Predict the structure.
Amino acid sequence: MRQGAEGHSVSFLKKGAVRIDQDGKLIVLRHPGDLLGDMAVYGRRPRTATVTAYTDCEVVTLGAELFRSRAFQDAYGAAIWSYVIGRQLETQVLSRSGDNVARLAWLLAPLLDNEELAVSGPDGVHLRVAQKDLADCLAIGPKLLRQLTALPPFGGMPEGRRKLTLVTDPEGLLAAAARLGGLP
């Protein structure tokens, strides 16, 4: 899915993780259970972001006509709109200024269960997410990101490994994310 293209389908992410970029910058990572491309199909407008696989993915794709059909909406419409409202909340939470540790925790919490992005080690959980992507998503600089990840519940970013973030206290990460009013 490319920003600016017409929305002819909606995809349901069954496995893996994807990055959502707007104007070339990461705005969020999506995980199994997420819908992709629904707003362009609902609104009959061009796609507002580009979706790119972050890991190996498995998706189920529905054509726009089926997705917008009365029968589909009768069966799944309420659940889809509840999901969309949750996504809007996520966008608001990630764009808040203030508690940057909690914002970073909110962004990373869903990744703890992703088998392709989270690798457990003796020092904690290593998340395969690039520093630049995290900084872009939170609209903070790389220096501030390094300072944040040096604080608990993080354990820093291993030297020379710009694509790893260490979480030494996963329970502390979930508690930090919860400070923003719930978990993603």
Residues 9-95 form a domain with the Jelly Rolls fold (CATH 2.60.120.10). The mean pLDDT is 87. The chain is about 40% helix and 25% strand.
